[in-house]
Amino acid sequence: MRRSYGWVIVGAGALMGCVAIGAMFSLAVFLQPMSDATGWSRTGISSAMTLDFLTMGIAAFGWGALTDRFGPRIVTSDTRNEMKKMLDEIKDGTYARKWISENENGRPWFNKMRSSEQEQLLERVGVKLRAMMPFLNPVTVKPDMQS
After folding, report:
1. DSSP letter string over 49-115?
2. Contact 45, 34 (CB under 8 A)
3. Is 114 exposed, middle or buried (0-12, 13-18, 19+ CB in 10 A)?
C-alpha cells in the first residue's frame, strides 16, 4: 500500500505544533531563569504570557476566516517543475558552484538582496524594537558584512 505524501506533511505539521505548544507550556520551568536574566518580575512575565495566549485565541478566529475564504494554496505543474529544477541544481552541484562563486566575488547578489530587505518598513521597525530590548543582545548586520 502506497502512502500519500500529504500525510507526511500532516505529520510534520502535527509534530511542529506539539513542539510549539510544549515550548509555550514550559513557562513554569523557565520562569525563574527568565526573570533572573531579564530583570522582569515573575508576574510581569506571566502577564505577558497570558496576553500571548489571549491574542492567539482571538487571532485564531481571523486565521480561520482567512483560511475559509482563500483556501489552501495549490501547487501547479509550473510550480512543481520549477521546484524539480531547483532540486536538480542542488543534486548536480550547480547551486553549490553558484554560491561558491557568489562568495568568491564578494557576494554582489546576496548583499543587494540583504540591502533591499533591510530597507523594508517591517525590518526598519524591527531594528528599532530590538534596540529597545538590549537583553536580546541584538546583532545588526550591514549588507557589506561577511556573516
Report:
1. HHHHHHHHHHHHHHHHHHHHHH------HHHHHHHHHHHHHHHHTHHHHHHHHHHHTT-HHHHHHHH
2. yes
3. middle
Domain chopping of the chain, boundaries? 1-72
pTM: 0.41
Write the single-letter amino acid at 6.
G
3-state helix, strand, coil in the chain (%, to 5): 75, 0, 25
pLDDT tens, 24-58?
Answer: 788 888 888 888 988 999 999 989 888 988 998 89
In angstroms, how far is CA 104 from the centroid of its own chain?
28
Alpha-carbon torsion angle 48, 52, 58, 64, nearest 10: 170
